[in-house]
Amino acid sequence: xxxxxxxxxxxxxxxxxxxxxxxxxxxxxxxxxxxxxxxxxxxxxxxxxxxxxxxxxxxxxxxxxxxxxxxxxxxxxxxxxxxxxxxxxxxxxxxxxxxxxxxxxxxxxxxxxxxxxxxxxxxxxxxxx
Length: 129
Known about the structure:
The protein has a single domain (10-114), classed as CATH 2.40.50.100. By secondary structure, it is of the alpha+beta class. The strands form two sheets. A six-stranded antiparallel sheet has the order 1-2-3-9-8-5. Strands 4-6-7 form a three-stranded antiparallel sheet. The two termini are 19 Å apart. A hairpin with a 2-residue loop joins strand 2 (16-21) and strand 3 (24-29). The longest helix is centred in the last third of the chain and has 8 residues, at 119-126. Helix content is 22%, strand content 34%.
């Protein structure tokens, strides 16, 4: 899979991405992280209404290789979670930035998004440049 890093997303060191959408933020896992995990078999996400704290665990992703905690790239309240990914974890591999999103969050502090890496910085980091 060719790794892509959409420029309309911001990226955390822990490989989650955030895409600002009006007053909300769509969270997911980067193509790089998904590529590293391999075949994903289980996704655990927080319930709607859960308060996320930046840098804290907010679910997990299990692959045939490992179980990884998802870390909240920003603080906020979960407004929606992607039930399709919970039912069919392979959606993450098919379309991580589209149908494979994980959470829709109302940010507690939208400026936290600005503190994340832009696509160029993140791509350089994960590609070792």
